[in-house]
């Protein structure tokens, strides 16, 4: 089927998780292209910083994506604020947890699930009626490469991101034949605050690293900046893609999911070891 282009530049959008990382970069990119942006986040300070970096019209809202009723209230506020059809809803807010299944703290896994999955469902349910009424617009839900493959010490994160993928794929089929569509975004490693803000109680790999060291290692292994990620996501949406892979590592995960659906981790482990050796050698030279 030919893809229907979905122009974003100059058209209003809503973005959650806009106080940092990919969400902030999406807001900055689209605002610079003339889009009015409604931005939401639980972090008021970061959200104000994002708003201050934008030049065009902006609606700023402190919001906990876990709160379904407040997401609906926010959707009403966005509806009243719009002067043109809402082009895209980016359900982007997310958090991390690193733990083995054996050592999992149920409250942490619950916290993650409520933000990374329920938050996406709440945002979709709150904003979908606006798009359906317009018969136009796209729901863009952020999954991950960890929504393509299960990774050790990331069980809660993978479960939530697989759930986002399934939810969004199901929604896309429901919307067939309408002017509304649904997109899954699968970023690889992106240099953001996600690892620093993750809940970690001890090094799940048993290497004795502090949380800070683990976050620094994550950041050193990332291949994509949030600015580049935002460009790829926007281009993918505008080109009418249903599934957007972000970064070269995302393409590798996608291939591995197809060709080595049970043995993929042997390849990933090898690459991780090579990357670690390269970084250690780099730090020593
Ligand atoms: N960085 C990566 O490598 C990577 C890879 C794959 C997927 N992702 C996904 O991309 C999305 C954006 O993450 P990021 O990497 O930019 O991280 P980030 O930590 O830089 O930004 C996440 C934002 O979400 C906000 N947030 C957290 N809990 C919230 C809540 N309850 N309500 C509202 N906002 C909340 C945070 O305050 C923060 O501003 C997430 O869904 C994440 O899972 C990131």
UniProtKB/TrEMBL annotation:
InterPro entries for this protein: KR_dom, NAD(P)-bd_dom_sf, Sc_DH/Rdtase_CS, SDR_fam
Gene3D superfamilies in the cross-refs: NAD(P)-binding Rossmann-like Domain (3.40.50.720)
Source superkingdom: Bacteria
Residue ranges occupied by any Ketoreductase domain in the UniProt entry: 11-193
Keywords: Oxidoreductase
Similarity remark: Belongs to the short-chain dehydrogenases/reductases (SDR) family.
Protein name: SDR family NAD(P)-dependent oxidoreductase
Organism of this sequence: Nocardia amamiensis
